[in-house]
Automatic annotation (TrEMBL):
Pfam families: Pyr_redox_2
Listed PANTHER family: SULFIDE:QUINONE OXIDOREDUCTASE (PTHR10632), SULFIDE:QUINONE OXIDOREDUCTASE, MITOCHONDRIAL (PTHR10632:SF2)
Annotated organism of origin: Ataeniobius toweri
SUPFAM superfamilies: FAD/NAD(P)-binding domain
InterPro entries in the cross-refs: FAD/NAD-bd_sf, FAD/NAD-binding_dom, Sulphide_quinone_reductase
The name this protein goes by in its record: FAD/NAD(P)-binding domain-containing protein
Domain FAD/NAD(P)-binding: 63-182
Length: 370
């Protein structure tokens, strides 16, 4: 299955960066093998007997197909499962009333889109007839084929698809998230902080504009860099570029994970006079002094303080806490999937998709397609 959501952005009349990323795409590919496998496991087939499907009696609700998370992966899969199993047999557990298309947030941070344009009522994206359980998953118990939700209700399933996304960890940087109450700091990674990036850009006068990349896996590894290019374009357009030092402090030892693209990006950063500092990991923000503290990852314990006029934070990220606390997790806390089929490595009636998984792809749809 290939889902490719594309949009063309509409730039404000007064500026239009030439080489800015104008198209965001999200592609989530589920290999057909996994769907074939689900068909094999369908109750009409014999394969069901060896699955963990015996706990129906003890649960208050039961669904043939239960999807955890109603983000990009969960909504796509529930539509597909509706076609396969029938709407009345599919339920999605998702607490949020609002569904966000996160790739737009890069453009919201750059002032080219509104945050409202990234939002839809969850009810409007939920496939019709599918049961929306408006609650948070607290526990997944694959040995009993049950899930516990916020209000204590136990839901049992025959098949489970886990699409819980990943966890942001702003709190792992000293001074955050409180520092977001101060001006000059923003983050495109959260709906509550993305507009602060645009405010900081607009209020920029002169000094360092710093963009960070954390020392953890991230979703959309290009996004921390994209906002730097868009900011550079905005500074040029508004006549502020001569007074701006545009700095990218990344924990990585490379500018980008794929050499072919990294080579091109090195040419671009040189042409545009963007300063790249590799192996610089943000560990503290001091908003009262407008200082950001970075650790030199090549020499642990050694720190360097940068003053900032604007700071864009990409937070450390980690596995969904619910997945991490369940038997479904691998040793690092990610959902332990077979990379060919997206089927769980220990529980054959459990599947997964998206950022919560341990698939050896980047945490964006485009890379998952490989
Ligand atoms: C700034 C930014 C830019 C990006 N740019 C791009 C891009 O250009 N191209 C691209 O392909 N990708 C991009 N991405 C990444 C893309 O948005 C994600 O990879 C994608 O949303 C992952 O889908 P998912 O379903 O795994 O997780 P999500 O879409 O994050 O959905 C997870 C869902 O699980 C729900 N949930 C969490 N915990 C619980 C719980 N305990 N119980 C029930 N529900 C729960 C959440 O409410 C959420 O709805 C970007 C992301 C960001 C933040």
């Amino acid at each position: 299955m290939l889902i490719n959501i594309q949009y063309k952005d509409k730039w404000p009349k007064n500026w239009r960066p030439k080489q800015a990323v104008k198209t965001c795409s999200l592609m989530i590919t589920v290999r057909m093998a996994s769907l074939r496998c689900l068909r094999l496991c369908h109750p009409t087939g014999v394969a069901v007997s060896h699955l963990h499907t015996s706990s129906r009696a003890s649960a208050k609700q039961h669904y043939k197909m239960l999807v955890l998370g109603g983000g990009s992966g969960g909504i796509c899969m529930s539509a597909r499962m509706k076609r396969m199993f029938g709407a009345e047999n599919v339920a999605v557990v998702e607490p949020s009333e609002v569904h966000y298309y996160q790739p737009i947030w890069t453009l919201v941070g750059a002032g080219a889109k509104t945050v409202a344009s990234s939002a839809r009522p969850t009810a409007s994206v939920m496939p019709s007839g599918v049961k929306w359980v408006k609650s948070k998953v607290q526990e997944i118990n694959p040995d009993t084929n049950t899930v516990l939700i916020d209000d204590g209700t136990e839901i049992s399933y025959e098949y489970l698809i886990v699409a819980l996304g990943l966890q942001l960890h702003y709190e792992k940087i000293k001074g955050l998230p409180e520092a977001f109450e101060h001006p000059k700091i923003g983050s495109n990674y959260s709906v509550t902080t993305v507009e602060k990036t645009w405010k900081a850009l607009q209020n920029f006068k002169e000094g360092n504009a710093i963009f960070t990349f954390p020392n953890t896996p991230v979703k959309c590894a290009g996004a921390p860099q994209k906002i730097m290019y868009l900011s550079d374009a905005y500074f040029r357009k508004t006549g502020k570029r001569a007074k701006a030092n545009v700095i990218y402090n990344t924990s990585l030892p490379v500018l980008f994970g794929i050499k072919k693209y990294a080579d091109t990006l090195w040419d671009i950063v040189k042409t545009r006079d963007l300063q790249i500092n590799l192996r610089h990991n943000l560990i503290e923000v001091r908003p009262d002094k407008q200082e950001a503290v970075f650790e030199n990852l090549d020499n642990p314990g050694e720190t360097k303080v940068f003053e900032y006029e604007m700071l864009h934070v990409t937070p450390p990220m980690g596995p969904s806490l619910v997945v991490k606390g369940s038997p479904l997790a691998d040793e690092n806390g990610w959902l332990d999937l077979n990379k060919e089929t997206l089927q769980h490595n220990k529980y054959p009636n459990v599947f997964g998709i998206g950022d919560c998984s341990n698939l050896p792809t980047a945490k964006t749809g485009a890379a998952v397609g490989k």
